[in-house]
Amino acid sequence: MKPPLNLAKESDVNAIGFTVTRPEDHKQRTLEKMAELRDSMRSLMVMLETCTKCGNCAQQCHSYLGTGDYNNFPAARAELMRRVYKRYFTTAGKMFGRFNGAEEFDEETLSKWVTYFYQCNECRRCARYCPFGIDTAEVTIAARHILSELGIMPKFMQSIASAMIKSGNNMGISKLACLDCVEFMEEEMQEETGLDIKIPVDKPNSDILYVPSSADFFTNVDTMIGVAKMFHHLGVNWTIPSSVLEAANFGLLFNLDVMREQNQRLNAAALELGASLVVQGECGHGWRAAKMYTEGASGPVPFKIMHVLEYCDEHLHELPLRKLPMKVTLHDPCNYSRGGGIIEQPRRIIRACVEEFVEMTPTGADNFCCGGGSGLLMDEMLEIRMQLGKKKAEQIKALGQIDYLAIPCSICKAQIPTVMKHYGLEGFEKGGVMDLVGKAMIYDKPEEE
């Protein structure tokens, strides 16, 4: 089924620096961009030239299993670009065309690109089961980049890109709004603990720059509170940058130039505030973009980058934690487990905070995607998102009764509750791993005079 994508307006796209082509220019511009990527992304060319269509990836893809659509079979999706590549960039394709599996780039092909490259969550699970290690996410990222350069992208992503450029975060939060939210959370912690726990903003000469998800100021405040409690107990010199109130970096998901701009903004904030350590908050693709591409976007940087779950795990023995009487399971965000080296850390943290921890099946790097990643968290795609989340619902249902589902990614936190409700799975809490840390912290509340 073709998703009802609302494409961005030409004026809006031009405002964030993309070249918008007319329909008659789509073919020429697409081939120009493919030629550029052929030279700059050699891994992409290897993946386009290597697949034997053995079928190993089919039963490992939640998108194919959820929709039943052949074109969501990872090898078939990649074939949408591979056929065009063969037609215009290989000798056999130029000479023999369709007889060699090549295909013209026309309006029908363009429609398929828009449809199916926006039904891939870029979760990279297929790559774990491919005998050649072909990563369909690389093909998806390349195709979306080309589409964005044509001026074709969901309005959801375009609005986020505009907000990131203007404010440094997805929600367009101003510094004043940030300070209001911070004041509210500080009051909440004061009332709960009796302690003056601060969430500093733009504090000069800070050792640690903490980059949260913008959702932590509104819908996921317990995540921010858990982080603030941890830093307070450890007595570290930390701050949040008002210019980058966002761990997420949506440019990774649709346009590589936008990704670089956000990475450079992160670099500038760390340098301005003097931080030697940047700690990324609970966001999957944001962590991948920061970990994998910051130096590629900005050159060598004079600070270390860690994830908050790495940092918490490293200091776990210093935190006064009690075991909450809860049965908890963990959803592994794709960009942690298959792209960011975050697998055991959240498990150690959860076990330190609760009485019972249970694993999904499969788990870790083999876990299934939530179905909302890679920028598909838009209302226009709600029906398809529920299909993509089917495997996650089956995993949760198989566990029986649980008390808490730990979801350490802001995108997953938005997608999974909707999936659970859609499939009739209710009766348990959902939140981040750092939420549990905040709830499990032991405080000797000062006595009132």
Helix content: 40-55%
Order of helices and strands: HHHHHHHHHHHEHEHHEHEHEHHEHHEHEH
Question: What's the architecture of the largest domain, going by CATH?
Answer: 3-Layer(aba) Sandwich
The total of beta strands comes to 8
Task: Report the C-alpha radius of gyration, rounded.
Answer: 22 Å
Q: Write the CATH fold name of the largest domain.
A: Rossmann fold
DSSP summary: helix tally? 22
Strand order in the sheet with the most strands: 2-1-3-4
Query: Which descriptor suits the 3D outline?
Result: globular
Helix- and strand-based class?
Answer: alpha/beta
**What's the story with the biggest beta sheet?**
4 strands, parallel
Could you please describe the fold and organization of this structure?
Helices cover 51% and strands 7% of the residues. By secondary structure, it is of the alpha/beta class. β3, α15 and β4 form a beta-alpha-beta unit. The termini are far apart. It contains 22 helices and 8 strands. The chain has 3 domains: 21-150, Fumarate Reductase Iron-sulfur Protein, Chain B, domain 2 (Orthogonal Bundle), CATH 1.10.1060; 167-314, Rossmann fold (3-Layer(aba) Sandwich); 320-440, Rossmann fold, CATH 3.40.50. The protein has helices at 10-15, 26-40, 42-50, 62-67, 74-89, 91-96, 107-116, 125-129, 136-149, 155-167, 175-193, 221-234, 251-254, 256-273, 284-298, 308-314, 334-337, 344-353, 382-388, 390-398, 410-422, 433-440, and strands at 208-211, 238-239, 277-280, 304-307, 324-330, 354-358, 404-406, 429-431. The strands form 2 sheets. Strands 2-1-3-4 form a 4-stranded parallel β-sheet. It has a 4-stranded parallel β-sheet with strand order 6-5-7-8, with helices on one face. The model has no long low-confidence stretch (mean pLDDT 91).
